Amino acid sequence: MMESFGADLIEQLRRNLGDAFQAVSGENLDWGALLVQVLGQLLVSVIYLGVFLGVYLILIAAIRLGLGERRTKTPLYIQMRSGLRYLAGLGALVVILAQFGVSPEVLKAMARAGFMVLGFYVVWVVFRRLIKEGTSRYRMDPSIRQLVENLFAVIAATLAVVTVLAQFGFDVVSIIAGLGIVGIAVGFAAQSTLSNFIAGITLLIERPFRIGDWVTINGQEGKVVKIALRTTWLRTRDNIFTMIPNDSVASTDIINYSAEGVTRLNIPVGIAYKESAKAAREVLMPVLLAHPEVLQGAGMEPRVLLKSLGDSSVNLEVKVWITPDNLDVRPRIMADILEQMKEALDAAGIEIPFPHLQLFIDDAKGLKPVLEPFYRLRG
After folding, report:
1. Exposure of 97 by Cβ count < 10 A (0-12 exposed, 13-18 middle, 19+ buried)?
2. Backbone φ and ψ of 22, nearest 5°
3. Rounded distance, CA 35 to CA 28, Å?
4. Domain 206-256 annotated CATH 2.60.40.1530
5. Quick check: 251 and 217 in contact, CB under 8 A?
6. Which pLDDT tens digit goes with each residue over 9-67?
7. What are the structural domain ranges in the chain?
8. What is the CA radius of gyration of the chain?
9. What's domain 263-348's architecture?
10. Contact at 8 Å (CB) between 329 and 274?
């Protein structure tokens, strides 16, 4: 029963296709001739594919032999190989479409459009290499190179699309006018995005910070990991990523801890009034000089200074310098130094006070009148 059902279904499909073909062409459908024609076209297409593939492989082998094995890993060889692969694919596509009856006008338009796209690609590769060499020569920020590459890529892609459409008879002037109207509408609808975009360009030009710097922006401290066209990305010490709009970044105060290289840490320490600041300094200095992360260069020697006289303590301030590489672990270094200083002060018998209050009452006898009867009883 299933075999009979399948045969009836195939016969019905064949009859329906034949009726549809006859309604369109006015002729009866010859299944045998159609099958022979399709198989012949597919066979010819496979042959053409093999020919173009063989030519591509021969050219690649010749280039590899001429350049040598070491130079085949360079970007120039990779781009050349991509171009040859693109030309082989374009030629195969045009020839195969010709086998299926595509008009010569369309084939010519496809060939012209394909060569123009290849031309835009070559211009893009050359321009990108010039940007890379220019930014390396003048030591420009990598984010500026990324910005210029993105802008040129958008412009080149837009021109390429318009040029390709023009080869197929589309009205380029109308397309450009339509894009201009759409651009104006998008500009009004995305004022905030455009504001962040312009602010991002300003940040890349002025460079108040670079990727890898430790900064404080809008009260948020973190390491700059990315400067995009719309936002700036920070990674906090808790490994939390924060994206701040560039418009907000450009209009607020920015504190850059990495801009000048080495950074000084100010660590407060309090001792009791009865203790000597000089004695505390003599105890703390060996701790600072022995710490591996504390710099000892000229002008960056660690110091212990008397900062102020507080309500309950003599306030000292320890000043040490660290390298930019240690900014990532600055809290750990501060905690480590503070712990070692406390142990050294405890070992030296120097008191670290806590806030306390002494109350003095003039002409007061205290608790003596209350406790005096108990003293007599005990006597």
Report:
1. middle
2. -65, -35
3. 14
4. no
5. no
6. 566 666 655 555 554 454 555 556 666 666 777 787 788 788 888 888 888 888 888 77
7. 33-188, 206-256, 263-348
8. 40
9. 2-Layer Sandwich (3.30)
10. no
